[in-house]
Amino acid sequence: MFTHLHCHFLGSYSDSLLDPDRDLARVKDMGQEAIAITDHGVIDYCYPFYQACRRVGLHPVLGCEVYFVDDARRSIEANDSYRTHLILLARDNRGFENLVKLVNRSWLDNNFGETRGLVDWNLLEEFHEGLIALSACFWGSLPQKYITGGMDAAEKEFAKYYDIFGGDFYPELGRHGIDDEEKANEGLIAISKRFGVTPVVTNDSHYPRERDWRFHDIIIKTRFGYATDFELDVRNYYLKSEDEMRDLGFPAEYYDMATEIAQRCRVDREVFSPDLGDERFDPEGIVVFSSKQVIIDAYQALKDVTGAWKIRGRGLQEIIDSLPRGMDIAQALRESPPLVGWLEENPRVREAADRLVGIPRRLQPDFSTVIDLPFEKIREVIPVRRARGEIMAAYPPAVLKELGLPLKSVDSLSGTAPGFSAWVKQLTMMDEAREKYDDRDFTSASILLEGIIKANPDDLEARFLLAEAFYFLKRYGQAVAQYEFLEENNYNPWRMPRLLTRKGWAYSWLKETEEARKSFERAIALKDNYAPPRYALGVLDYRQGRYRKAIESFKIFIALRPEGKQADKARGLIRRMGG
Ligand SMILES: [Zn+2]
Ligand SMILES: [Zn+2]
Question: Using one digit for the tens of pLDDT, what is the confidence trace for 263-320?
C-alpha cells in the first residue's frame, strides 16, 4: 500500500493540472486508498478535493505546501524573496481549523508583494496543534540546510521542527532526478537515524500521467501572461503507481510511513461548515469580497500553446485574436471557420488547447459581492487572501455558494452606505481598466484610468497602470510625468526597480539621455540582481559609443538572464563591439 502525501491540485495556480473532479477516480483505480492535497500556499481546493475523494471512495488528507522563512517580517522588510517549502497536513478537525488560521495569517499579515503569504517559526509555534509536518521537496528548509550547511546545520534545523511538532515531523524523501537531490536524501536518512524517526517517501505530483508533462510545461511557461523559455529539467512530477514508487528503491518502511501518516489524518466534513455567528458585515469595517476565477478559455489556450511552442503560421495571430472570449475549443471552432482549417493541420495544438481550457489561472476579488460577516469572524474560519489591494474569500465561487456562506450584493447597499458604494465603484472601474490593459487596449484603459484619478488623485495603482499605458501608447512625456509622481509619493517599493527602468526607457525615447541613465542606475542601486536596467544601460552606452561600459553591462545582464531574445541581442552587440 502506498499513499501520495504531496500533490498539487488546481489551487497551485499555473503549476498543476490535477483536478479533484477528474483525476481522483484514477488514483482509486491504481489501487490507492488515500491521497493528500498540498497546494502551494493556499487551501482553496480543500473542499472540492474532500468531496471528490468521498465520491470515489478515497480517504482525503487535507494540507498545504506553505512558503516558509525564518522570520516573515524580516524577509518582507528586506524585500528578500528567499523562501523554502514545508508540507503541513491536518491530523484532525483542530488541525484543519489551525491550517485555515495559519494560511490566512500568512496572507494577511505576512504578505510578500501579493504573490504569496509567508509562514515562519512564530506562526508554526502559534498554530501547530493538530498539524503534521513533512520537510517538503528538495526546496524544504531541512534539505536546503543540509546542502548548504552540512550535518550540523541540518541537525539544528531538525531540532527546531522537533521542538514544535515532536514526533509529528517527518523528513521527506523523493527521487525526481534533481541535481543534489540524492545528496539531500543521504543527509535526511542519516538525520532520521540519529533522531530515531522514519522518513517518508513522496512524489511531488503536478499532473496525472507522465506524458502530461508537456501540458504542465505550457502553463508554467505562460504563467506571467506571456511565453517564456522557463523549463523544468525533470519530467517526473506525475501521480505514480505504487510499483513505480517502489521502483525508486527506498526501504519498504519509508513507503509504508506515507500510508501510516494518511491513516492518522482524519478530518470531518463538518469542519467546512463552521459556526458563523449572528453578526453581519459592516460597511465601516474591513470588507471581504467574494472571489471569481480567471479561467483559461479557447483564446488564451491557443495563445499559450502557440506561444510556448513558438508556433507561427501565416495569419495565425489574427485568427486567435479575433476569437470571442470565454469559449471552449468546440465553440471557438463554430465561431471561426479559419480556425477549423488551421487546427486540422495542427492536431497537437488542438489536443493541448483542449487540455488547458477550463483550468483556473488565478482567483481575483469579485467587487460586486461581499461576504456578509465581520472580517474578524471570516479570518478565523474561511480561507482569505489579499489580492488587488483588497481581501477576498479564497474559495472558488461555487464552493462559497455550496457551503452556504452568506453573501450580499454591493448594489443592495447603495441606499444605506453611499460612501461604501462609491468606493466599490472605483474598484470596479479599476478592474475594467485592468482588463482593457491586459487586452492591450491601452487607449480605452487610459481613458478609464484618467477618470479614476480625477475622482481620486491619490490612487497610485491607477497612476502606475496609466503610466504603463502611456508608455505603450508612446506618449512618453505623459508617462514620465506619472512615473515621477509615483516616485515622489513613495509608491510600492517592490515595483520601484521596474518603474525606474521603464522611466529610463521613456526618457531615452525622449532623447534625454542623462535622465535615462540616472533612472537605470537608481534601479540597479535598489536591486542589484534585477536584469532589465543592466540591458538598458548597455544599450544606452552602446549608442553613445562607450563600448567598454556597454560590454560590462551586457555581461552582467547575460549572467543574470542567460536566455531569451535580449540575451541573444546582448551577445550579438558584444561581438560587434569586439568584446
Ligand atoms: Zn516543494
Ligand atoms: Zn510540491
Answer: 999 999 999 999 999 999 988 899 999 999 999 999 999 999 999 999 988 888 899 9
CB 320 within 8 A of CB 348: no
DSSP H helices, 439-512, are 442-455, 460-472, 476-488, 496-509
Return the C-alpha cell found at 488.
515622489
- Domains parsed from the chain with CATH numbers: 20-209+237-272 (3.20.20.140), 288-416 (no CATH), 453-576 (1.25.40.10)
- Exposure string of 393-418, with b = 16+ CB inside 10 Å and e = fewer, is bbbbbebbeeeebebbebeebeeebe
Report the distance separating Cα 155 and Cα 284, nearest Å: 50
Which amino acid is present at 473?
Answer: L
Give the closest ligand to the alpha carbon of residue 206: 2
- Which pLDDT value is given to residue 315? 86
Distance CA 114, CA 129 (A): 27
* 123, β-bridge pairs: none
CA distance 78 to 318: 45
Q: Residue 204 Cα, ligand 2 centroid: separation in angstroms?
A: 5
Measured distance between the N- and C-terminal CA atoms of the chain, rounded to whole angstroms: 61
Centre of ligand 1 from the C-alpha of residue 117, in Å? 15
Q: What is the pLDDT of residues 508-542, one digit of tens each?
A: 999 999 999 999 999 999 999 999 999 999 999 99
Q: What is the pLDDT of residues 179-235, one digit of tens each?
A: 999 999 999 999 999 999 999 999 999 999 999 999 999 999 999 888 888 888 899
Q: Which amino acid is at 519?
A: S
Q: Exposed, middle or buried: residue 76 (CB in 10 Å: 0-12, 13-18, 19+)?
A: middle
Q: How far is CA 196 from the centre of its chain?
A: 36
Contacts (Cβ under 8 Å, ≥6 apart) of 72: 106, 109, 110, 112, 118, 119, 120, 122, 123
| Å from CA of 68 to ligand 1 middle | 11
Model pTM?
0.89
Q: How far is the CA of 450 from the centre of ligand 1 (A)?
A: 43
- Number of CB atoms found within 10 A of residue 101's CB: 16
